[in-house]
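Backbone-to-sequence.
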C-alpha cells in the first residue's frame, strides 16, 4: 500500500465521524443568523450593510451569499461546512509533516473534531487557511505572496483570525532573523506585505461597527478596562481553556467552559500549561514569541472588547499546533517533546467527552420547536418572543418572521442595532401588549428561553393577558437554546400601541 493510501486511511475515520456529526448536529442561533442575513441581502451593498452590524469581517457571509441565491434550505450551512472541514482533514492527513499516529492525535483534538468543523460558522475557513499556510510555510519558504494570501484569508474571517495571522507573521519574521537568511528578495517581501495589508485593511473595514450597532449582548468596549481581576480572568481563559476546552462530565454540559468562583484556583493549571509550552519549545524563541503574542493579544481582546468563548480561545491551541508542525518539519526523525503529546492527548480526551455528551442532548431545541409549531398547525398564529438572540433560529427554521419584544420589531433574522439596547425585563408586559395590538388583538404564540416566572406571569395578567402553557423543549446543550411556549390571550382592551419597526432596513 502506498504512502498516500495509508495517509488516506488516517483521514477516513475522521471523515466518517465528521459526516455523522454534521447530520446529527442541530443548527443554532449563531449559525442560522448568518444565513438569515445573506437571505435578507439581495445585493452585495445590502450584504455589507448587514455585516457592519455583525462585528465580523466579510468572508463567511460572502461564501454563504453565493449558494443562498439558489436555495432556501438551512442545510446549505452544513453543506458548506462539510466541504471546508473535509478539506481540513484531508490536508492534515496528506500534507502535514507529522507521523501518521501524530496526525491522528491532532485530528482527534477538540477543535478539529467539533468546534471548528461541526459548528457551521466562519472558524472552519480560518482553520483551513491555517493548515494550508503551515504547509506553505514549511515547504515553500521562498514564496511569501501565497503565504500573504492565506494569512489575509484568516484575517478576513474574524478578529481572532487577525490575531492569528499577525502571530504567524511575527513567527515567520523571527525565524528568518534567527537563521540570518532572507529566502526571497526585498521586493518580493514588500509585495507580500502589501498583499496582506490590503486584504486585512479591507477585512477591518468590513467589520467596522455601524453607528447604530447594538452593544446589548456583548457589553460596551473598555467598560472593564480598569478591573485587574477581569484582566487576570481574561488571561486564564487564553491559557487554561485552549487546552482544557470542555467542562467536567459531572457538569452535564460540555460546551463553553467558564471560570467560576475564586480565580486563584485556576493558577496552578495555568502555570502548568505555560511550563509545558516553554519546555516543549524552549530555545526556539520564534515559536515562543508566536504563542506569547497570541496569548497577549487574545487576553487584551477579552479584557477590553469581548470576553469571548471557546471558539476564540482556540487560536492558542492552533499556534501550539503550528509550533509542533514547524518543529516536526525541521526534525522529521526525532520525537516531539513530551509536553506536546500530553497536551494533544488532553485535547483528544476532551473530544471523547464531546462526542458522548453531544449525543445525550441536542445542541439546540430550535428545530424541534419549529417542527412542533408546524405539526400542531400553529404557523398562522402570531409569533412573539423573548430572547431575540435565540428566537431567531426558530424563525429561520420556519421561514417566517418573529416579533422580538426587545426591539419591538418583526423580522426573520436578528439585526444587531441599537433599537434593541434600551430594553429591560420590566418592559416585557408593555412590549407584549404592543405586539398584541400590532396583530389586531389575536391570541399570541409567545416563546421564552426559560420557564415563565411568577412575576412575569403576574405582569402579563396585570396587562389583561390570560397565560396558558403550551409546550416546552429542554434541556439543550446551550442553556439559551431551551424553548417554552405560551398562549397569550387578551381579556380586556388595551390602548393603541405605537408603530413598530418592520424589517432590517436593507432588503
Amino acid at each position: 500500500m502506498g504512502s498516500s493510501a495509508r495517509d488516506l486511511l488516517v483521514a477516513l475515520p475522521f471523515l466518517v465521524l465528521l459526516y455523522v456529526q454534521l447530520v446529527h448536529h442541530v443548527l443554532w442561533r449563531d449559525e442560522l443568523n448568518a444565513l438569515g442575513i445573506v437571505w435578507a441581502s439581495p445585493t452585495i451593498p445590502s450584504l455589507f450593510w448587514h455585516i457592519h452590524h455583525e462585528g465580523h469581517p466579510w468572508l463567511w457571509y460572502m461564501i454563504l451569499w453565493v449558494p443562498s441565491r439558489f436555495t432556501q434550505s438551512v442545510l446549505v450551512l452544513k453543506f458548506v461546512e462539510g466541504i471546508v472541514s473535509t478539506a481540513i482533514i484531508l490536508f492534515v492527513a496528506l500534507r502535514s509533516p507529522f507521523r501518521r499516529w501524530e496526525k491522528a492525535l491532532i485530528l482527534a483534538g477538540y477543535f478539529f473534531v467539533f468546534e471548528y468543523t461541526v459548528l457551521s460558522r466562519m472558524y472552519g475557513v480560518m482553520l483551513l487557511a491555517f493548515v494550508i499556510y503551515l504547509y506553505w510555510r514549511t515547504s515553500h519558504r521562498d514564496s511569501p505572496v501565497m503565504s500573504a494570501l492565506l494569512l489575509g484569508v484568516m484575517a478576513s474571517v474574524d478578529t481572532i483570525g487577525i490575531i492569528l495571522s499577525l502571530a504567524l507573521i511575527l513567527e515567520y519574521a523571527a525565524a528568518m532573523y534567527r537563521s540570518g537568511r532572507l529566502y526571497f528578495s526585498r521586493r518580493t517581501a514588500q509585495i507580500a506585505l502589501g498583499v496582506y495589508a490590503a486584504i486585512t485593511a479591507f477585512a477591518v473595514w468590513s467589520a467596522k461597527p455601524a453607528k447604530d450597532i447594538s452593544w446589548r449582548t456583548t457589553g460596551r468596549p473598555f467598560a472593564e478596562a480598569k478591573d485587574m481581576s477581569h484582566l487576570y480572568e481574561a488571561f486564564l481563559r487564553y491559557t487554561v481553556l485552549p487546552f482544557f476546552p470542555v467542562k467536567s462530565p459531572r457538569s452535564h454540559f460540555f460546551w463553553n467552559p467558564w471560570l467560576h468562583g475564586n480565580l486563584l484556583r485556576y493558577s496552578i493549571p495555568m502555570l502548568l500549561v505555560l511550563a509545558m509550552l516553554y519546555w516543549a519549545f524552549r530555545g526556539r524563541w520564534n515559536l515562543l514569541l508566536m504563542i506569547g503574542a497570541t496569548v497577549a493579544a487574545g487576553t487584551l481582546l477579552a479584557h477590553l472588547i469581548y470576553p469571548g468563548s471557546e471558539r476564540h480561545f482556540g487560536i492558542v491551541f492552533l499556534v501550539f499546533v503550528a509550533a509542533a508542525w514547524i518543529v516536526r518539519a525541521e526534525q522529521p526523525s526525532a520525537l516531539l517533546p513530551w509536553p506536546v503529546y500530553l497536551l494533544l492527548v488532553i485535547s483528544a480526551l476532551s473530544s471523547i467527552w464531546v462526542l458522548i455528551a453531544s449525543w445525550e442532548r441536542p445542541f439546540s431545541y430550535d428545530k424541534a420547536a419549529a417542527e412542533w409549531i408546524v405539526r400542531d398547525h400553529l404557523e398562522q398564529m402570531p409569533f412573539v418572543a423573548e430572547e431575540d438572540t435565540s428566537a431567531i433560529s426558530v424563525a429561520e427554521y420556519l421561514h417566517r418572521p418573529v416579533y422580538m419584544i426587545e426591539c419591538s420589531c418583526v423580522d426573520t433574522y436578528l439585526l444587531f442595532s441599537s433599537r434593541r439596547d434600551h430594553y429591560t425585563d420590566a418592559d416585557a408586559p408593555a412590549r407584549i401588549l404592543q405586539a398584541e395590538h400590532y396583530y389586531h388583538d389575536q391570541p399570541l404564540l409567545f416563546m421564552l428561553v426559560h420557564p415563565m416566572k411568577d412575576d412575569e406571569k403576574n405582569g402579563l395578567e396585570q396587562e389583561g393577558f390570560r397565560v396558558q402553557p403550551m409546550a416546552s423543549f429542554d434541556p439543550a446543550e446551550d442553556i439559551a437554546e431551551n424553548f417554552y411556549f405560551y398562549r397569550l390571550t387578551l381579556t380586556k382592551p388595551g390602548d393603541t400601541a405605537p408603530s413598530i419597526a418592520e424589517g432590517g432596513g436593507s432588503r
